[in-house]
Write a structure and sequence with these properties.
159 residues; mainly beta; Pnp Oxidase, Chain A; 12 strands; 45% strand; globular; binds flavin mononucleotide
Length: 159
């Protein structure tokens, strides 16, 4: 016996999260990126995080071969970036955006709440998704409010 997809979404959507844009370089050196809320810290020693990505996502193949990925934790005013990296044509997602590059070359978006640069240390099969586990090589943050996701919609922190 197993739970149906609608119930799964309805119940698990009660677990609120932040929102990230994961970035990487594909095999041709092109920038790829997508919105990911299934991101979390995993271990302190060593410092590990994970991002869970749909096998159907356009950047999936790039993540299968990439040795690094970047994590942009979005700030409250970056809802448009979240929509952009989920909805528009994957080849145009970086057009006109302000960003820097991390030491590994991955895009770090301007004005993100935090940046994390990771070295891929493991890939774990997880149903229709894959967990990409990264060791954190560099990380930085600024003081600002986070963008939140709750029950299928965007939310803001009230405190
Ligand atoms: C708020 C939000 C959170 C999302 N979280 C995830 C996630 O954790 N994992 C995932 O694979 N897709 C997630 N998505 C969906 C992907 O961003 C989207 O399907 C992806 O960019 C695929 O588009 P593409 O195949 O055209 O690149 C999320 C979308 C939104 C708007």
């Amino acid at each position: 016996m197993t739970i149906d997809p609608d119930s799964f979404r309805s119940v698990l959507g009660r677990f609120s999260s932040g929102i990230t844009v994961i970035t990487a370089l594909d095999a041709d050196g092109q920038d790829v990126g997508m919105t990911v809320s299934a991101f979390c810290s995993v271990s302190l020693r060593p410092p590990l995080v994970q991002a869970c990505v749909d096998r159907a996502a356009s950047m999936f193949d790039a993540l299968q071969v990439a040795d690094r990925f970047g994590v942009n934790i979005l700030a409250a005013e970056q809802e448009a970036l979240s929509r952009r990296f989920a909805d528009i044509d994957a080849t145009r997602r970086f057009e006109g955006l302000g960003y820097a590059r991390g030491e590994s070359g991955v895009v770090l978006l301007d004005d993100a709440l935090a940046h994390v640069e990771c070295r891929v240390v493991n890939r774990v099969d997880a149903g229709d998704h894959m967990m990409f586990i990264g060791e954190v090589e560099r990380a930085s943050a600024r003081d600002a409010r986070p963008l939140l996701y709750y029950r299928g919609g965007y939310a803001q922190l009230e405190r």
